[in-house]
Amino acid sequence: MFLIVLITLMFMTEKITNKILRVEKVRISETPGKNLDRWGRGIILFVFLSALWSGIDFNSDTLIKYFFMSYLAITLGFQAIMEFIFIKDSKQYISTMMLLILSLVIVYNVDNFPFLE
Predict the structure, then answer these.
(1) In whole angstroms, what is the distance from residue 111 CA to residue 62 CA?
(2) Is there a contact between 94 and 17 (Cβ–Cβ < 8 Å)?
(3) Cβ-Cβ contacts under 8 Å for 24 (sequence gap 6 or more)
(4) DSSP state of 58
(5) Of the four listed, 2, 53, 58, 97, which is most buried by Cβ atoms within 10 Å?
(6) Residue 117 to residue 62: CA distance in whole angstroms
(7) Where are the transmembrane segments (predicted)?
(8) What are phi and psi of 25, to 5 degrees?
(9) Distance between CA atoms of 80 and 18, rounded to whole angstroms?
(10) DSSP letter at 25?
């Protein structure tokens, strides 16, 4: 249930931010940075999946939370950098950074949500 609420909140935040900034959504796959984006996301995913199975103690909720936060920060940060470099005429990277900040704040404070207990 929490994951559905989180995804919905992130989707709404992106839509509202894009509307305020008057940003037309452009995919990086439609730019010359398509291959760099795919390779970068693949490498990030590989590194985090290998670290997940080799170095994470699944009994520690705090460690899993910080692992997920670092994955979000690196993935969305990479996406914002790619948008800044390859989508020059757009402010789409600002929307991605807002999404990054909001998601990190929510995941950091997930322990304080009363409906998750």
Answers:
(1) 9
(2) yes
(3) 90
(4) T
(5) 97
(6) 15
(7) 39-56, 68-87, 93-110
(8) -65, 125
(9) 14
(10) P
Quickly state the pLDDT bin for 1 (edges 50, 70, 90): low
Q: What distance in Å separates the CA atoms of residue 100 and residue 39, rounded to the nearest whole number?
A: 21
Q: Which of 31-45, 54-68, 72-86 has the lowest mean pLDDT?
A: 54-68
Q: Is 22 left (phi over 0), alpha (psi -120 to 50) or beta?
A: left
Q: How far is 22 from 107, CA to CA, in rounded Å?
A: 28
Closest alpha carbon to 108 in 64, 60, 54: 64
CA 105 to CA 95: how far, in whole Å? 16
pLDDT tens digit string along 75-108? 999 999 999 998 878 888 888 898 899 889 988 8
Structure tokens at 80: 């914002």
Indicate whether this model's pTM tops 0.70.
yes
**Helix residue ranges, H only, 22-88:** 34-55, 61-86
